[in-house]
Design goal:
The structure holds three protein chains of three kinds. Chain A is of the alpha+beta class. Chain A is built from 22 helices and 27 strands. Chain B has 14 helices and no strands. In chain B, helix 13 packs antiparallel against helix 14. Chain B is globular, with a radius of gyration of 25 Å. The chains are: A alpha+beta, B mainly alpha, C mainly alpha.
Chain lengths: 719, 325, 447
């Protein structure tokens, strides 16, 4: 031990540690404004016409710019122009194309025109597809085989070019959405809205991607270099939200021209991997096996940090950078990180700037105050880590397949059974056990923050009741009464005279899901029902849902845009999964509900719409095709040096607003990552000690051998 | 010699065909092309049309084994099985179900795999031989018994414990190396230290025991006794006679696994997020990416066959008595 | 009584082993090595430990439905003995021998005020009024009491046996190996008795995320480990023996075909083969839902298939060894003589070849056992191991992986899995060594 102490002392005085040994990044990067983030699954598509999930949006929202965006600071969410000069001019038209006034009856509106004007002078990022030679021809649009052969990545095409963004590029992108070969996930939806979309789609079905440039699409026209018009059928006020999604960002025709050349796909050089946009960042390295790097776009147009926000934003320092030119961060590195342990550890070591909280790291990071608010633990606060919470605009629910003969259908018996289950499945407990309280139990279809959500009076009267001014889940006894009424006294199925067996279909088959499945079983046991978990892989699960063979399942929905229509359509009869292949996974069909939905869907927010929404909520609560689950609360942690962060669940392009205090980061990292050497030296010492007996034994043997040999030789000489 | 190699090569063809058929059957029993399409297209708004498109793009829109609608030999060639198999045999792995070129990915990922596996093998070999020699040197002493017990103990611990424990202590508590990750070139060294160390350590138990038996076998042989009787010391006999002769089985054993090193280590790579072929395979299994898994199975079989061939050749090189026929 | 597939196969295995024992009685070339094992202290000690594990595994392999229960729950004898452990669930993590949860929670005090503190456990140490001061003396006292009870029980049994034994056996029992064995039995029984006694009052290995007793999980995992280690061999043996002997004996095209089969199988990375098969089982179960209504049946089916596929991937090694040995044997004089005398080939195979390769089979069975138990853990990590709902060390380790990132860390799940798995595998390895030394003709000279 004394040896170890000595060695430690030796090391600590001879080795002034200048750098952290465990820094996973190159040393020279630590002083730059580089943001480190992670991704856990490799993204599949960076083509804005195809990409449709949050992990991909984390990248492409920084690269592509649709005409509109959500205001970063203001709440409720509000659309503001991004590349557009102002919000679109909306014109209602009658069947003949005549202009209508704004107070006209909804049913008279045959078409709506969206007139969008974009700013001039916006330029695309430097990109080989736009590179021109001295003659003014595109340099890389006719690549010869040797050129393709020699290129390993996009960066091997040295020359780059840029050009101004035009309205035609937006039109081109909408044509791309319609092209069957591109396989846009929203093509089916847009068919119902954009005039001429379906016809165009059929017209170009057998033409190559590059051919659509010169074919006109009826409903979308570029009126001038900076102005275009989208004509949609009827009235659809939510359409403007689509215009803030990456689907409607501009795409230069040169991109398709370039990437469509045979042979490039074999090198993984496609639009899906190397985007081309006008946004604040450009993709500099795309290695989904390891990391992706975004660099600041040198040609990014003038955009400045917002000057107004919510009342408390100024006090929080969120307005300190008001008016400054965006973006602040020079380089963003996304590292592939699949395991949660390394990820969390690296965050604590300062090698990631922000982190979510898994339920395993929760206790370490969060504690609750006397009034039940979540705050950081002292150790976290000491590190200068900060916490941000927000309720996600999503809903998780347990659905019943309404086509099922036991739990489904509109009979009173089945409804009572569903209601009983709704009481028994105690989602408050679920949230507390599995989500560490990071969520709120749902009272209906809508999450907070969506128009029509009512947090004061809107409780679900079939599951909850008011008790001493608090919302309480009904007692299990009431659920048992409902079970009796449904004909399953004590959970006994009269047909088999045994416990009623219900089936729970899930894709959660991994070990980490086991406690959760056990919990669900316990909930049903309260009613005497035996729940059988049918775990299966994702494909099988999808097939079951499609064919209507599932019985009970849990599912969630993330809002595309902040409007109640985007939630209620999950229960609209015509969206039934089995009958129509839609998103109504419960296959719920109630004529009255459908009628109200059709009425509500195209309305602007108003007193009347609010009333209809409440009626619809009531119908769903009564029929109980879903057990309303919960709306998760996002908790995210970030280090003190990471500035200007505000949760914005609709906007994905926050990166450009954020800033990093590099000096503070370098200092903290230094401080937190002093290596510990003494156990290593101790280990070496122990090993050496273990060798000593071996050495002694060896010496002894050598001696013996020598003695023996001398003995022998002496005998020989005697002889 | 060259004749032999050609014959072995021809012999391996039916083998690879068999592997191909087996994996094909296994995977298509599990997944229909429709399932694959749905899996890859994601959860929101998937229509029949987009599934058909996807299948067409990835070449899954023809029948599995027999095309009734086609003419002549197209009845066989215009099937998923034929088209995909021919590609594999020519090492054209095609595009993965998620849309990336598999060949390019494999090329890129082979190096990191090798960067972990090769040092692990080499250092492991060195360490194991050293310890085994020491145990033979001190045979029938308490040192050997202690060493043997230690070996059995090391062998009885699951490799998962080594990884979890190593990552926890060295990476998290002592902060000596980055906890996970990878970099190109020389910068990779700091990421490789820990995985290599753990890999070597977890192999010590069984490795040392195995080499010890090899050495012991050699030690008992007559020529060694003669050497000892001639007056060579124990260390001299070990290094001059026992080690070189025991190296023959050791090296030929190593040659078998050499090609398979490219396949990487499944667990180690995913724990330390090293972008090698092992983690590639695991990801493919988890996301049910049929094309990648098939490519990896095929690659594995090819490497295995090469390994067998190399072993045979190395036998002739080290031992002139063995002749290939 | 409910007989699961793996249960049935375990019974078959036991019958086969008994039959084998009867068959080998009095066979000189098998008896000698067995006696050698019987004289080896390490061998006998590890055998005792293994038998102890096997006993637990067997207890866990007798399944039945609780009579007075409408829930149709299938439980095993072991579950019945461990009912308190099974039902004493806490809310979430608690450390070994803890009386409170591992993390602070908001709790409502009697007077209605909220407090941020460690809540008391529902079962662990609930008999204590002042855990801070009473806990350690209580644990020591209970441990001592349990030890004493266990010791006196086993002591009584030993005395009883001593009294009943005949004089010649008594001499045998005085041998040094027998003494070691009795000491080990004595220690195991007293300590497990103490553990059982303590676990009625405390969670001796803590509780996991949903408050399930970790000690119970670790004990339940024994069966999974044993099933994988033994049934896989049971499944692979017929294939390996038949193919190996046939290939070696007949040579020619039979040999070519068999060699082709096993080289093909060998050349496929086994992990991928296992992954594909496990996916197939899931599909099968999805298509035949009616047959798999209870969780335990589904888990059992998957376990069985895992054994099957592990068997398929692992028979090739033994097959190759047997082929080589048979090639050697068929050139022996007595086999040649038998052939010359016109003895039927089937008879030659059964009489002369099979008994003479049995030692290879035995050695490879014991050697494979521990590697299979270890493989289970690795496979569970990639999610292609046993069913996630069943208890296994692999699943425990896999779950515990995430717990290592907690601060303060939750170490007991990992430790429990480690201790149990280590004990089993170590015993198996030591025993395998002894068996190998005894049966391997090359080695027997070394001793």
């Amino acid at each position: 031990m004394s040896l170890a102490v000595f060695l430690t002392a030796l090391v600590s005085c001879t080795l002034p540690i200048s750098e952290s040994l465990n820094n996973p990044y190159p040393e020279n990067e630590s002083e730059q404004a580089v943001l480190y983030q992670s991704f856990s699954e490799r993204p599949k598509h960076f083509d804005p016409a195809v990409s449709y999930n949050t992990s991909e949006y984390a990248f492409i929202a920084q690269i592509y710019e649709p005409p509109f965006q959500y205001h970063y600071l203001k709440r409720p969410y509000q659309l503001v122009p991004l590349t557009a000069t102002r919000l679109p001019e909306i014109i209602y038209l009658n069947q003949k194309g005549g202009k209508l006034s704004y107070d006209v009856n909804d049913s008279d509106i045959a078409f709506t025109d969206y007139m969008i004007e974009i700013q001039s002078g916006i330029r695309y990022q430097p990109h080989p597809a736009l590179a021109k030679n001295a003659q003014g021809d595109y340099q890389y649009h006719q690549l010869n085989p040797t050129q393709i052969e020699s290129a390993a990545s996009l960066n091997d095409f040295k020359a780059t070019g840029s050009r101004e963004l035009t309205a035609e590029d937006y039109v081109y992108q909408i044509k791309r959405l319609a092209h069957p070969k591109i396989q846009s996930p929203i093509a089916e939806i847009m068919k119902n809205y954009i005039v001429g979309f379906d016809d165009f789609s059929k017209q170009v079905a057998d033409k190559p991607k590059t051919a659509i440039r010169n074919l006109p699409i009826a409903g979308v026209t570029a009126l001038s270099r900076y102005q275009y018009r989208i004509r949609i059928k009827g009235k659809y006020p939510q359409f403007i939200y689509w215009l803030a999604m990456p689907f409607f960002s501009p795409m230069p025709w040169e991109a398709d021209m370039f990437y469509d050349q045979a042979g490039l796909t074999d090198k993984n050089i496609t639009l899906d991997w190397f985007p081309l946009g006008t946004g604040p960042y450009l993709m500099a390295e795309n290695n989904p096996n390891r990391r992706m790097i975004l660099l600041k776009n040198p040609l990014f147009h003038q955009e400045s940090y917002p000057a107004e926000g919510e009342a408390e934003d100024r006090q929080k320092g969120l307005l300190a950078d008001a008016g400054k030119k965006l973006p602040f961060i020079d380089k963003v590195v996304f590292m592939l990180e699949k395991e949660t342990i390394p990820y969390w550890t690296k965050f604590l070591q300062g090698y990631y700037d922000a982190s979510g909280i898994t339920s395993d790291s929760f206790d370490q990071a969060i504690q609750f105050t006397g009034s039940g608010d979540a705050v950081l633990t002292p150790t976290m606060r000491e590190k200068g880590i900060q916490l941000q919470t927000s309720v996600a605009i999503s809903s998780f629910y347990m659905g019943f397949n309404m086509l099922d003969s036991t739990v489904g259908g509109t009979t009173e018996q089945a409804r009572k059974l569903r209601q009983a289950i709704a009481i028994a499945v105690d989602y408050e407990e679920y949230i507390s056990i599995f989500m560490n309280g990071r969520g709120i139990a749902a009272q209906g279809v809508l999450p907070p923050g969506i128009y029509g959500f009512d947090d004061k009076t809107g409780i679900n009267p079939y599951v909850y009741q008011w008790q001493a001014n608090k919302v309480q889940r009904k007692k299990i006894a009431e659920a048992r009464k409902l079970m009796i009424a449904a004909g399953y006294a004590n959970g006994i199925d009269p047909k088999t005279e045994e416990a009623l067996i219900l089936y729970f279909d899930t894709t959660s088959t991994s070990i980490d899901d086991r406690p959760r499945m056990n919990w669900y079983r316990k909930q049903f046991e309260k009613l005497g029902i035996k729940l059988v978990i049918r775990g299966t892989d994702y494909n099988r699960f999808q097939e079951k849902m499609r064919t209507g063979n599932a019985q009970i399942f849990v599912w969630g929905w993330n809002a595309d845009y902040p409007d109640p229509e985007n939630f209620f359509f999950l229960l609209y009869g015509a969206n039934s999964k089995v009958r129509h292949g839609g998103e109504n996974a419960a296959n719920y069909h109630n004529p009255e509900f459908d009628r109200l939905f059709e009425q509500m869907r195209n309305m602007d927010n108003s007193e009347q719409r609010y009333r209809i929404i409440q009626q619809m909520q009531e119908i769903v609560r009564h029929d109980a095709p879903w057990v309303f689950g919960y709306h998760p609360k996002n908790f995210s942690l970030f280090h003190g040096w990471y500035k200007n962060l505000k949760p914005n669940l609709m906007a994905n392009n926050q990166l450009k607003y954020t800033r990093i205090d590099t000096a503070a980061r370098a200092e903290k990292r230094q401080q937190w990552n002093q290596p510990v050497f003494w156990p290593l030296l101790l280990g070496v010492a122990v090993f050496v000690l273990m060798l000593i007996p071996a050495v002694i034994a060896y010496r002894r043997r050598r001696l013996q051998e020598r003695v023996m040999r001398e003995h022998l030789s002496s005998r020989e000489t005697k002889l | 010699m060259s004749q032999y190699i050609i014959r072995r090569f021809l012999y391996s063809l039916p083998l690879l065909m068999g592997v191909n058929i087996l994996t094909f059957v296994l995977f298509f029993v599990v997944n229909s092309p429709d399932d694959m399409a749905r899996m890859q297209l994601g959860q929101k708004h998937v229509t029949e049309q987009s599934i058909a498109n996807w299948k067409q793009q990835h070449g899954y829109d023809v029948p599995l084994l027999w095309n009734d609608d086609a003419q002549g030999e197209k009845k066989i060639t215009d099937t998923i099985f034929y088209q995909k198999s021919v590609g594999l045999l020519l090492f054209r792995f095609g595009v993965s179900d998620s849309g990336r070129n598999i060949g390019a990915d494999i090329k890129e990922r082979a190096m990191p795999s090798l960067a972990v596996a090769l040092p692990t093998l080499m250092i492991g070999l060195l360490v194991n031989i050293c310890f085994a020699l020491m145990m033979v040197l001190f045979r029938n002493s308490y040192l050997e018994h202690a060493g043997l017990v230690l070996c059995v103990i090391l062998m009885s611990i699951s490799s998962l414990f080594y990884i979890i424990g190593g990552q926890f202590f060295v990476g998290k508590v002592l902060r000596l190396v980055p906890i996970s990750g990878y970099d190109d070139g020389m910068a990779a060294i700091k990421f490789l230290i820990l995985p290599v160390l753990i890999g070597v350590f977890s192999g010590i138990g069984s490795g040392v025991r195995w080499y010890r038996t090899l050495f012991l076998e050699e030690v008992e042989k007559d020529y060694v006794r003669t050497a000892r009787a001639k007056g060579l010391t124990e260390t001299q006999t070990l290094f001059r006679h026992v080690l070189p002769n025991a190296m023959i089985p050791i090296l030929t054993g190593v040659v078998v696994v050499l090609p398979l090193l490219f396949m990487g280590s499944l667990i180690m790579e995913s724990f330390f997020s090293i972008p090698g072929l092992g983690s590639y395979t695991i990801d493919a299994i988890n996301s049910q990416d049929f094309a990648i898994v098939r490519a990896m199975v095929f690659l594995g079989s090819v490497l295995y066959v090469i390994g067998l061939l190399l072993t045979d050749i190395s036998y002739t090189l080290v031992d002139p008595r063995v002749r290939l026929s | 009584m409910v007989v699961l597939w793996t249960d049935a196969l375990i019974y078959v295995l036991i019958i086969v082993m008994l039959a084998l024992g009867v068959y080998l009685r009095g066979k000189e070339h098998i008896q000698r090595p067995l006696q050698q094992i019987g004289r080896n202290k390490i061998g006998m000690t590890s055998l005792v430990v293994l038998l102890f594990f096997v006993l637990i595994g067997l207890l866990d392999s007798v399944h039945y439905i609780l009579a007075d229960d409408k829930k149709n729950e299938v439980i095993s004898l072991l579950d019945d003995f461990a009912t308190p452990l099974r039902e004493h669930g806490e809310k979430t993590y608690s450390a070994p021998f803890a009386t409170t949860l591992y993390s602070k929670e908001m709790t409502m005090l009697a007077d209605g005020t909220l407090q941020w503190a460690y809540p008391r456990l529902a079962f662990g140490g609930r008999h204590l009024d002042h855990p801070e001061t009473e806990k350690i003396p209580d644990i020591l006292q209970k441990a001592a009491y349990g030890l004493a009870q266990g010791a006196s029980l086993i002591g009584f049994i030993m005395l009883l046996m001593w009294g009943l034994l005949a004089e010649q056996h008594k001499r045998f029992m005085r041998g040094s190996t027998a003494k070691t064995v009795w000491t080990v039995v004595f220690i195991i029984v007293s300590f497990s008795y103490a553990a059982i006694h303590l676990s009625a009052y405390y969670h001796i290995f803590g509780t996991d995320k949903v408050g399930e007793d970790v000690f119970y999980q670790a004990v339940k995992s024994i069966r999974t480990g044993l099933v994988i280690g033994t049934l896989t061999t049971l499944i692979m043996l017929p294939m390996a023996i038949i193919f190996g002997i046939l290939a070696g004996f007949f040579r020619g095209w039979v040999d070519d075909v068999i060699q082709y089969i096993y080289t093909t199988l060998n050349s496929i990375p086994s992990v991928l083969l296992i992954a594909a098969s496990i996916l197939m089982v899931q599909v099968y179960m999805a298509n035949h839902e009616a047959d798999f209504t209870s969780v335990i049946v589904r888990a059992d089916m998957r376990l069985l298939f895992l054994c099957l596929i592990l068997g398929v991937t692992s028979w090739t090694g033994l097959c190759r060894l047997l082929r080589a040995e048979t090639l050697k044997l068929r050139e022996m004089e007595y086999v040649q003589a038998a052939q010359a005398l016109g003895v039927k080939q089937g008879v030659i195979l059964l009489r002369h070849i099979l008994p003479n390769v049995m030692h290879i089979v035995l050695i490879s069975v014991v050697l494979d056992f521990s590697s299979l138990v270890l493989a289970e853990a690795v496979l569970s990590y990639i999610n292609i191991g046993v069913d996630p709902t069943s208890y296994s060390w692999g699943n425990m380790i896999n779950g515990a992986r995430l717990e290592m990132a907690r601060e303060p860390i939750v170490w007991w799940s990992l430790t429990a899995a480690f201790v149990f798995m280590f004990a089993l595998v170590l015993a198996a390895n030591l025993f395998a060594d002894v068996v190998q030394n005894a049966f391997d003709p090359r080695r027997s000279g070394n001793e």
